[in-house]
Amino acid sequence: MGQITVVNHVTLDGVMQAPGRADEDPRGGFAHGGWAQAGNDPVMGRVMGEGMGRDGSILLGRRTYEDFAGWWPKQTDNPFTPVLDAAHKYVASRTLTTARWNNTTILSGDVTEAVAQLRQAGDLTILGSGELIRSLIGHGLIDVWMLMIHPRVLGTGQRLFAADGPPAALRLTDSVTTTTGVVIATYAAADG
User: Fold this and answer.
1) Are the CB atoms for 143 and 122 separated by under 8 Å?
2) How many C-beta atoms lie closer than 10 Å to residue 81's C-beta?
3) Which of 126-136 are b and which e, b meaning 16 or more Cβ less than 10 Å from the residue's Cβ?
4) What are the C-alpha distances in Å from 47 to residues 42, 59, 135?
5) For the chain, what is the radius of gyration of the CA atoms?
């Protein structure tokens, strides 16, 4: 059986919305897009590169997939582009019917059942995809959390963990602090 790893940027108050760009996700009037850019440094690049070098597929929600498919293939000078382009991508969506990025499979039917079957076959990494993550937490389908915790408090925005979500016990398995004060903390499910 494989494992599912969440890799995400979050603020100290748990916001994960639009870390990369100002126009990435303005839902709900969110005006802080691009907040994670100041935290990038060579340490983060190294740790992320090591994580992206692992075998496995990428699991994305529809919104994240559409954003990534419109952005990453155009980033020809970024070392993550060929890795993301070559990786097999699974997309959980109730509305998407065609894929516009190579190596993409759209999951149909019950997402938790489909993801559980994929997990049986191998490792999956979830990037972004907050709604998808929140839907999988209650089913015990998240094994590892690699969180880049930025020293920022935004007060508003979509959060990684829902206020009414199920409790979960985690154990710290690794941590690295970057030169910009971002703590890259890796947690495993305490029972797994």
Assistant:
1) no
2) 15
3) bbbbbebbbbb
4) 9, 20, 27
5) 16
Please give the full DSSP string across 99-156, using - where no structure is assigned.
--SSSEEEE-S-HHHHHHHHHHHS-EEEES-HHHHHHHHTTT---EEEEEEES---SS
pLDDT per residue, tens digit, the chain (192 aa), is: 899 999 999 999 999 999 999 999 999 999 999 999 999 999 998 888 777 656 679 999 999 999 999 988 888 888 888 888 889 999 999 999 999 899 999 998 899 999 999 999 999 999 999 999 999 998 999 999 999 999 999 999 999 999 998 888 999 999 999 999 999 999 999 874
- Residue appearing with tokens 């839902």: 27
Closest C-alpha among 112, 192, 177, 185 to residue 145: 185
pTM tops 0.85:
yes
Distance of CA 117 to the CA centre of its chain: 19
Report d(CA 106, CA 97) in Å as an integer: 7
